[in-house]
Design goal:
Blueprint: H1 2-9, H2 11-49, E1 53-57, H3 73-79, E2 85-95, E3 116-120, E4 136-139, E5 150-153, H4 155-161, E6 168-171, E7 174-182, E8 192-196, H5 197-207, H6 209-223, H7 226-230, H8 234-243, E9 254-259, H9 265-276, E10 280-283, H10 285-328, H11 330-338, H12 343-381, H13 392-419, H14 422-426
Parallel strand pairs: 3-8, 5-7
Antiparallel strand pairs: 1-9, 1-10, 2-3, 2-9, 4-7, 5-8, 6-7
């Protein structure tokens, strides 16, 4: 009570000090929650990619995923026979919709993974070592025997499109029925649409002018009878034979391989590279995990940066206020020492008062931060695009941090108060 009474005696200065700490803790709470969301997304992605061997077409950009080639099924079949490889699952990925030609930059301005079609060959025996099964909120995930007009969707897609099990969904001009909604993962699958690989291949070919041209030429070549082909010039026959080499099942944008029990995945990756490094790009679980760890370093710097702001702004405010308080209460300190109070008792009183100022500023700053986070997340919830993640453990750390900030900043003023001599203090009576 004495601490609160002392603060009330200098209420305007105490108010300004608490507000100074609140600003820092507000930034700490908001930036920390944003970084928690990013870290959750990154850790989920890391768990997935480190549970498999990732195979991409030669020339694929790791940073953007852009590629001009595909993975022939014959190459994937050969990789499946490499020593240590358990199974290979080809996959096709493409954006849910093409960019708006009048505003192409709008589609790239999204937080996290954009809505993505993921078509996989579910007949494969492949199993991700870390994500054996995707938890479902409604219905079930796609299985090999599922019809080509069925999809399972991530929870962000469900929220954005207002879709549930049994609803119809039109994707790139084709009609599908939703059979499952995945539970929240806070990472890529929240924005995925899962389907069998055949319809995904058809949509990828339709969306890519180059692939569409190859397929059209192959269809025309296959439609020519052997008798009619024999009547054509040799050059034309050679061109048509080349066109026939295009196969729809060769259109795979990436593949995932699992390794047999007892094998080291890095050794299996080496085995694949030794035979097919000139035909495909192979990324080991360790390589992808290291790449993701580098990205998370920046996010952790955001947390440390916001904590530093809180430390500087709040710390100097507390130091200034408590030093002024010691100067103004010199007589009071002298009286307390004259009646027997020790320097340690005086130091504890001032340190605790600084801690109370810190925790009050922390609670106000954290409350304002939570208010802003709630408003922003609420406005984005309809689209399943919440950008902040709040965890009770993090909030407890914020309160503890603000209390410690006040304590540390109050040490110097408390030490000065404890060192005051009774005679010097009494002179001011």
């Amino acid at each position: 009570m004495e601490v609160l009474r002392n603060m009330w005696r200098r209420k305007f200065r105490s108010f300004l000090t608490i507000m100074g700490i609140s600003i820092g803790i507000f930034a700490f709470t908001v930036m920390g929650s944003l970084a928690l969301k990013f870290n959750k997304m990154i850790s989920g992605g890391k768990d997935y990619v480190t549970g498999q061997i990732t195979i991409m077409p030669k020339g694929t950009s790791f940073s953007t995923g852009a590629t001009t080639s595909t993975l022939p099924v014959s190459v994937l079949d050969n990789i499946a026979k490499v020593d240590g490889v358990e199974a290979v699952m080809p996959t096709v990925q493409l954006a849910l919709s093409d960019p708006d030609p009048d505003n192409p930059a709008a589609s790239s301005a999204s937080f996290g993974t954009p809505p993505t079609i993921v078509g996989s060959d579910y007949s494969s025996a492949f199993k991700n070592k870390n994500w054996d099964k995707l938890a479902m909120k409604e219905g079930h995930n796609i299985i090999a025997s599922e019809g080509d007009d069925k999809v399972a969707i991530g929870i962000s897609i469900s929220a954005d499109k207002k879709l549930h099990v049994g609803d119809k969904m039109t994707i790139r001009g084709k009609d599908f029925t939703v059979v499952g909604v995945a539970d929240r993962t806070n990472t890529g699958p929240d924005s995925y649409i899962f389907m069998n690989i055949k319809p995904a291949r058809e949509m990828l070919i339709e969306s890519n002018p180059f692939l569409k041209s190859l397929k059209d030429q192959a269809d025309k070549a296959n439609a020519i009878s052997a008798a009619a082909l024999a009547q054509l010039p040799a050059d034309t026959q050679a061109q048509l034979a080349q066109a026939k080499t295009f196969k729809v099942e060769d259109v795979n944008s990436m593949a995932a391989a699992s390794w047999k029990d007892g094998y080291d995945p890095e050794t299996v990756v080496k085995n694949i590279k030794d035979k097919y490094k000139n035909e495909v790009l192979v990324m080991s679980p360790k390589e992808l995990g290291d790449q993701i760890d580098k990205a998370s370093v920046l996010l952790n710097a955001v947390i440390l940066g916001s904590a530093l702001i809180a430390l500087i702004v709040g710390g100097f405010s507390v130091i200034n206020t408590m030093i002024m308080s010691v100067s103004e209460r010199t007589k009071e300190i002298g009286v307390k020492k004259a009646i027997g109070a020790s320097g340690w008792t005086i130091a504890k009183e001032y340190t605790f008062e600084a801690g109370v100022i810190g925790i009050l500023g922390g609670l106000i700053g954290m409350g304002l931060g939570l208010l802003m986070i709630t408003i922003v997340n609420h406005n984005l919830a309809d689209k399943g695009a919440e950008i902040f993640l709040v965890q009770n453990s993090f909030l407890a750390e914020v309160v503890l941090f603000s209390f410690c900030l006040g304590i540390v900043a109050g040490i110097i003023p408390a030490w000065r108060a404890s060192r005051l001599k009774v005679v010097d203090a009494i002179r001011e009576l």
